[in-house]
UniProtKB/TrEMBL annotation:
Bilayer-spanning residue ranges: none
Keyword Magnesium: no
EC top class, as a word: transferase
The protein's name in its UniProt record: DNA (cytosine-5-)-methyltransferase
UniProt cross-references to InterPro entries, sorted A to Z: C5-Methyltransferase, C5_MeTfrase, SAM-dependent_MTases_sf
EC number: 2.1.1.37
Lineage, highest ranks first: Bacteria, Pseudomonadati, Pseudomonadota, Alphaproteobacteria, Hyphomicrobiales
Amino acid sequence: MARKIKVADLLCGAGGSSAGAKRALEEMGLEMELVCVNHWPTAIDTHQRNFPEARHYIQDIATVRPHILVPEGYLDLLMASPTCTHHSVARGGKPTSDQQRSDPWHIVTWLTELRVKRIIIENVWEFCGWGPVNMKTGRPIPSRKGEYFHAWTETLRRLGFELEWRRLNAADYGDATTRQRFILMGRSDGRKIHWPMPTHRKRDEVNADLFSAAEPWRPAREIIDWSIKGRSILNRKKPLAPKTLARVLAGAFKFGWPKPFIDKLMEEIERSLRYHINWAFEARNAKASKSKRRQRRALAKDLIRRLRHFRIAPAEYAKGGRAAEPMVITLRRNGNGTSISSPIPTVAANGQHVGLAEPVIVNMKGQSTATSSREPLPTQTSHAAHLYAAEPIILSQHNSGSAREVSDPLPTITTGGAANEARPGCARPMLVEPFVLSQASGGSPRAVSDPIPTPTTGGNGAAHALISPYYGSGSGETCNHVDEVLPTITSKGRFGMVVPVTNSNGGATARNIDVDPVPTMTTAKGGEFAFIAAQFGEREGQAPRVHDIDQPTPTIAATGHINLVESGPEYDILFRMLEPHELAAAMGFNTEEATYEFAGTKTEKIKQIGNAVSVAKMKACVGAIMADAVPKLKSRPDAEFLEAAE
């Protein structure tokens, strides 16, 4: 019979820590006896669906009595994820209070009322700077940065714990997101603390090391549902926000989209600027408070400045690309494009800050259809250009989110919410998906995994899908290729997928780049590639960033500001947010064997994912700290010795 390990998961949320711990303990031949506490009924509902054998308590951690919830009086492992939103940079400069940042102190009660052998605490890295807040401004006092953190850790040491903490990247342990988090591990039994060895590394590092046993970061491409198509980014009744379009444009430059797509984006940016300037002036004259009018006046000035700069320096935007590749775009802060071969950026709790843009090859003649860029080219003719390639990317919608490749992990997922596609600042990872389009009559898009149609002598190019983050100011928060990991996933879903497409006059239709063959291809102009883009958050003077969908997604925050940008009919760009099941896969919840079941609305699901702990990383941490709990096999005496004894 397997030995039972008593585990408590405080502020358990949807169960990322619990899932990681269960997988680790089962691999070691141990059985987990779990106690969970969370104040949100929806999160507890999700947890109960996936861990029906656990004891669940819907209660504020500040009011629970540990000795009542754990009558046994001891724990082998205590895991806790104190509220991080009041420490995270993803919240921007919003005011907070000491009371809102006090959750870590409630963990001390569990350590005094129970005998706890091991602890694992997860939070954002900025938690190390936890200090007092100015009562007037509601912002941390810079001169007292880290004061409360050091007092808290000293309290844990006085309770008998040896402590160590590090910053760990989820992509290094097999999750498809570059979510970086503070991890503290402690023991009260005097034994040494062991840390998990990374199992994955950046693709370039793995390729450069012939003797490396590590695998490449999981790409965002693995978690993207290519059957879902985006909506055209152009000529919407209410244009996308100028910053969102600027991120897509940055991703298009980064991944070399052909000039026709650049021209379309320039036209749409100018239209968006004019629309939002008119809105700002109309709103300024409407009935509103003095502060609201001041904000709208400042917005109008900023938009006019951007429009003036856009007119003065058109050459900066008018460069044509050779081939458009897919990318991931983070739609927050200084988001830009990154490769889809990398993980997605960090997924925040709103889950809406990563977008994907994807490339395909399309035959623009006859009744040809789009095909995957990984398949052979179709028959080439001596006609004008009729083939285009587009590659997927992921867009993140917060911070400095940029497009990424789908082969990279998703960015950090935040806790925002998903019901805001109607407004320019929506925030969930978006996928921009690539496919192949033919320029000939009737040519339709095909998956890049299918053969290319018959090509002619017109010349060709390619456009890649990108993941666009809607947030981010740190390095790497740019549009990603779909072969990159996603950035950090937040709770507002700020990732968008951007996929550029072309279409012929013959009614060409788009196809999935990973499934359908490429139509007959000519040597025409370039095609389109998807990428991921961010939705918000560039600081003054910082260029938008996008992500390749061959890279992980950016960090997924609670707002999920990641957008997907992809191509559509003729010279079009398709754009959509990454869906909850895609974000959940990036965070390690969904596996090939089982799909994690989430309760609540779409917005609530994204919030749970963005607030969650990445599963593979927690599995590695639990496996390291619990390694000494594995029962030692008792060696049997030799058969000869037993015979002699008889």
